[in-house]
Fold this sequence. Notes:
Layout: H1 8-19, E1 23-27, E2 30-33, H2 34-50, E3 58-62, H3 67-79, E4 82-85, H4 92-101, E5 106-109, H5 114-120, E6 129-132, E7 140-141, H6 142-147, E8 163-168, E9 178-182, H7 183-187, H8 190-196, E10 204-207, H9 214-225, E11 229-232, H10 238-247, E12 252-255, H11 257-264, E13 279-282, H12 289-294
Parallel strand pairs: 1-11, 3-4, 3-5, 5-6, 6-7, 10-11, 10-12, 12-13
Antiparallel strand pairs: 1-2, 8-9
Amino acid sequence: MANDINxxxxxxxxxxxxHGTRTALIQGTKKQSWSQLYHRACQMSQALRTAGVxxxxxxxxxxxxxxxxxxxxxxxxxxxxxxxDVNWRLVGxxxxxxxxxxAAKVLIVGPDFVPILDAIADELVSVKTIVVIGGHxxxxxxxxxISSGRDEDPGVEASHEDVAFQxxxxxxxxxxxxxMLTNNNFFALMPTAKDLWKxxxxxVSMVAMPLFHIGGGGWATAGQFVGACSxxxxxxxxxxxVKLIGEERITHGFVVPALLQFMLMVPDVDKADFxxxxxxxxxxxxxxxxxxxxx
Length: 295
């Protein structure tokens, strides 16, 4: 139950045990139940352990929103390690700085960002293992890496003061800074978020904002805290989002005001099926009175 969840690992352990057959993740035509996500996270945790990742060590992840993101997130959590999502909008030297600053032992890279990996690989200081989603001529593929791990929960428990998330600031006035959120920081807010946003195990949550940002990652975690289904959006397209709400029977979503404005401009948006929708949360920037009223 959500009241017994005090860290990231508790989320996947608890929901797998209590309602493992329910859908946890949807991305396009791919679906994962809570049980399937848990077993994949167990394999990831064991593969990471073999790669030398231990308690509170960092694993860097460079890719857009994906099912793999959550396999890595929860795989790290089962080890009480920390997944560090790198802003995929950054250029090579900026990515290099963050991965080195985080002292990541493993770097996992999505197919869209292989050119960045190739440009910075020789300058990575702490990374001992590089994994590429979709494969690479030089580095181990994601499928091979996760398949190498035993399907066994390492059973590591996290304390309230252990770091759960490490997010990087934009670096507007200097270098990006690693913002570390402990389990206490984050999970003390979850019961309030659940009640305020009326999240339940029946919620179908649209995860469209980048997961390297607290708006994306925090929103996704709030839904998963209660056992909701997360519908993952890799590339944001206002037309497709309007369709997605009806097709997947989205009940809850988080967007930035600019995206909400573009969704309102989609042709025939007034004829779209929003009958399942219960709540749209906006944030990260101000919203105009016109967009708020039209929404």
